[in-house]
Amino acid sequence: MRKIKWLLSIITICILTFTLMSCGKQSSIETVRVGEVTRSIFYAPQYVAISKGFFEKEGLNVELKTTWGGDKTMTSLLSDGIDVALVGSETSIYVAAQGSDDPIINFAQLTQTDGTFLVAREKVDNFSWDQLKGKTFLGQRKGGMPQMVGEYVLKEHNIDPKNDLTLIQNIDFANVSSAFASGTGDYVQLFEPTASIFEKEGKGYIVASFGEESGKVPYTTFMSKNSFLKENPETAEKFTRAIYNAQQWVDTHSAKEVAEAIAPYFDDTSIDTIETVVERYKTQDSFATNPVLDKEEWENLQRIMDEAGELPKRIDHKTLVNTKIATDVMEQ
Q1: Residues 114/107, Cβ–Cβ less than 8 Å
Q2: How far apart are CA 110 and CA 112, in angstroms?
Q3: What is the distance between the alpha carbons of residues 244 and 283, in angstroms, rounded to a whole number?
Q4: 193 with 277: CB under 8 angstroms?
Q5: Where are the domains of the chain?
Q6: What is the pLDDT of residue 314?
Q7: CA pair distance 35, 118, nearest whole angstrom
Q8: What pLDDT, on the 0 to 100 scale, is given for residue 228?
């Protein structure tokens, strides 16, 4: 009887120990709420970081939701609906210009070029930008990076967006592609995979890349409130390390391998189309190979904003960009 009680005591201790260990293991997993401005193959490294377990390796559970638009994404971040936003860096400048006590800090760059393409309704042989003159151009939302880059590129090709063509900018971001498909506009500025899908379906034809035309710019960046980064430095470092590892993975693997890794995030897109889009973005160096947002890119961003008449005031790189997290991760 005494031996049975002794065995039961040992078993009870083992069960309690296992339970405590399991609880401890569960508590070590930290949840980070991320809001992405849209769902796009353009953000391939982010999905790779999830699918390949780079976040999990860092002890992070990323809750990803699509917030559909820069204004909605920033509102969600400011109201603490998310911890991290993946959105254009221009939004942090808009917030800072309004005098925020808790500025939005860019800490990890994901893409380094514009991700949109110029799509023509009719097939065009020997395309030149001056063919847009006198035509109707269906652009993106005023004040957003796609629209500002679009106008910047037009001006670089001696096209006045206000006078040389009919510019439509009053259609919501999510409805631009359907508006073009229904007959609005001669040309449209589209993200992938929509541009490639339209081409395959004969609804439009890709004739130029805004990313190739505009140069390096911090088009999409992970950002958080300054208070969040100060209160959670280890979390920010782990998050950035996972992104960096994913960026390196994307850079060193084929478009087909990347497409297979991110396919679960694009159920309505064929694997062939995903591969085509990834290859296109890789070819024009759209995916940043490290998370550092450097000063030159920041200045190019503000130059584009200024040219579009959307720069509220010029803000120094070090004021809204934290490069220490990214550089520390890369040096480890």
Answers
A1: no
A2: 7
A3: 19
A4: yes
A5: 29-113+217-331, 116-214
A6: 97
A7: 27
A8: 98
Contact 115, 42 (CB under 8 A): yes
Q: Tell me the pTM.
A: 0.87
Q: What confidence category does residue 267 fall into, taking pLDDT thresholds of 50, 70 and 90? A: very high
Q: Which amino acid is at 206?
A: I
Same CATH topology for 29-113+217-331 and 116-214: the answer is yes
Q: DSSP letter for 287, please.
A: B
Residue with the bigger pLDDT between 147 and 24: it is: 147
**CATH assignment, 29-113+217-331:** 3.40.190.10
Mean pLDDT of 317-323: 98
Please report the pLDDT score of residue 8 as a whole number.
Answer: 45
CATH of domain 116-214: 3.40.190.10
Secondary element (H or E) of residue 35 = strand 30-36
- Alpha-carbon span 116 to 160, nearest angstrom: 20
Residue 18: what pLDDT?
A: 47
Distance CA 120, CA 130 (A): 13
| pLDDT tens digits along 56-83 | 999 999 999 999 888 999 999 999 999 9
Q: Which one, of 208, 236, 274, 326, lies nearest residue 44 by Cα?
A: 274
